């Protein structure tokens, strides 16, 4: 049953949705409306355009985000505040995911309002939930594999923000941040951007290397998959490939992750291609879209 598409909402349900959307404009009724609408993301296919094209709704969602800024520094964010703003972020993720609203979402620079949340470093659960939900919005954008998304993200500070989270976030946040980096790298312009200067490449390589060392102590097959795929994609750039021959962590060359990869044939396959690409005189396969991505190691 879970594989069946969500049924279209009936007229009564649609009226409820429009009622909640109208309630977003009223600060007194907004919190409950955010909660109810966030539950409808999967069951109302056109919720994104309904939100975007309704008067005052986007402004109300941005107001929810901006209202949290004072709780970031100093770090006083409560669980209640985090839950409320994350409901607003969930609706923005809905808008970011929809083909009809994605472009205007980018043109309005909405993702930039989330970046202060990605800058936070507090390890408390409200902050971790806030970072993870914010990363989810960016992740929804890059999932589309659209050039417009990558071009937008490369004009922002998303790469250093992701690298920071990849180094010090929770396992789940690290996984989403690494996935975002992977999708950026899979785009030719993203690979060129990261490999354009030594500083950019080395920053990525150092963080990826630290992640491998950390994964050797606390294995995560899901996170390792994205790390390996990032490394693999980097081998499509000749200079990055040459550098990786020198700095790829030994843990990826020996049997450190043999047990972790025992049941993961796809990651084992990506890793074998990565190691083959790094053999002296090896030439990377011609189609970069078939490669995996993984950060570099020091």
TrEMBL record:
GO cellular component: CCR4-NOT complex; cytosol; nucleus; P-body
GO biological process, any: regulatory ncRNA-mediated gene silencing
Keywords linked to the UniProt accession: Activator, Cytoplasm, Nucleus, Repressor, RNA-mediated gene silencing, Transcription, Transcription regulation, Translation regulation
Keyword Transcription (UniProt): yes
Xref: Pfam families: Rcd1
Domain of life: Eukaryota
Chain segments annotated as coiled-coil in the UniProt record: none
Subcellular location: Cytoplasm, P-body; Nucleus
InterPro entries from the UniProt entry: ARM-like, ARM-type_fold, CNOT9
Keyword Plastid found: no
Recorded family membership: Belongs to the CNOT9 family.
Identification of the protein by name: CCR4-NOT transcription complex subunit 9
Organism phylogeny: Eukaryota, Metazoa, Ecdysozoa, Arthropoda, Hexapoda
